[in-house]
Amino acid sequence: MDPHLSGSKVDRQVYHNIYEPLVTLDTKLGIRPGLAESWSQPDPRTLVFKLRRGVRFHDGTDFTAEAAKFNFDRMKTEPKSVRKGEVASIDSVDVVDSHTIKINLKRPDAALLATLTDRAGMMISPKVVQERGAELQRNAKGAGTGPFEFVEWVKDAHLVIKRNEGYWNRQGGPYLDRVRYRPILDDTVKLQSLQSGEIDVMDYVQPRDVAAVKADKNVVVLDVPSLAAFAYQLNHQKPPFNNKALRQAVAYSLDLEQIVKGVWLNVGVPANGPIPPTSWAYDKSIPYIKRDLAKAKARLAEGGKPGGFEFTMTTANIPINVQEAEVIQAQLREAGITTKIKLVDAATQLSDGNSRNFEMISYQWSGRPDPDGNIYQFFRTTPGTSLNWSGISNPKLDELLDKTREVSNQAERKKLYSELIRLLQDELPMVYTVHPVEPKAFSPRVQGYEPIPDGMMRFKDVWLK
Q: Where are the domains of the chain?
């Protein structure tokens, strides 16, 4: 429940209803006022935010410039913060007056505004942080400013939020009294629960169910184009994948078309890298890595393993991940590479990734509105805990990554991103498989839902017929 410590997508589904960022996204990924009513950039290294007056945290304390500064300082200095990479360009935050902050940057950062539409821009009550400490991760009572307040979280059963009666934004909702999130791990049961009216919303329809659900009159399906990139991180800091030729052997052994067709049932497209087709920075002239067993075998020989090698692939123990892992295992076998599959729960997957306790690990990134959010924090040399699980540290890569933040012209940035994609296809800190589409399903009673391509379900203006 603590946005500064969270590395998981499912957390964000709840956050976007309890917490609010300084700026928000519209359905076209444009940036709109949130807790900041306006902003200006007097020079490339300064960003000034005018904050909304009359906003209160759910604990009754005022949202002020001091509170905003507290949040930025915490993201930068809290040892367990996983926002460090996202706010790395921020040098300091000054309180100008009670409702104005000035962000001083170490270097220009073209992606920062878009980054602040998500967890890095979400404001938590300083009083709750100071009084509750680590317990905030389980109990967010009073912590946010959003349209809904945290009520309770019963592990493995449900998480409940209720309407914030004192919400600052009087336009539109919140209309719903309560929202109850239920973890239903079995996709079939989840779908049956929706079809029987036991639940009202399903955040994701599995590819195998899409056709049937679309034919069902009792269910409304929305295909939300996503920003996601699904991949496998390869650990560069230990054998076998500290050997570039062996990383390339794996990439050339994979048949992405077969994976997208057989596993994802074409509810998505093969990925050429971290940037999805929904992004302005996507370069369709760069092909995804095609299967080439002759090249794979040549790379094995070059890497000193002409007879192949063995490694362990860690993935989440959910049906589609298991299915994809088994298809990959079979494809690698044809190149003489033996793969053991290690199935873990989501918490273990995160801790294994953060501690680099893996050889190859699946990583499903839900994506960010600016391409920077799909790239920078994964591949920039970063000391300590970060999303750079592969441990890649490449001066050329670092230089390009920094340039993408310094240049504000979109056409220039796009060229740099294309150069990055080519370098990533060569260095392979990650092997990308698919950019999925995210079908969401609703009971016909649910009205007023606006699909934003970040895939997050915001319930402020939703009502029931």
A: 9-137, 229-436
Inform me whether the pLDDT recorded for 114 exceeds 90: yes
Say how many C-beta atoms besides its own lie within 10 A of residue 155's C-beta: 8
Token reading at 317: 């123990």
Give how far Cα 195 sits from Cα of 56, 192, 221, 224, 459, Å: 39, 5, 12, 20, 21
Radius of gyration of the chain (CA): 22
pLDDT value of position 453: 84
pLDDT attached to residue 322: 97
In a 3-state reduction of DSSP, which class is residue 44?
A: coil
What CATH number labels 9-137? 3.90.76.10
Asked if 71 and 124 touch (Cβ cutoff 8 Å), the reply is: yes
* pTM score above 0.90: no
Domain 229-436: homologous superfamily in CATH:
Dipeptide-binding Protein; Domain 3 (3.10.105.10)
User: What is the predicted pLDDT for the residue at 420?
Assistant: 98
97 Rama sector, left if φ>0, alpha if ψ -120 to 50, beta otherwise: beta
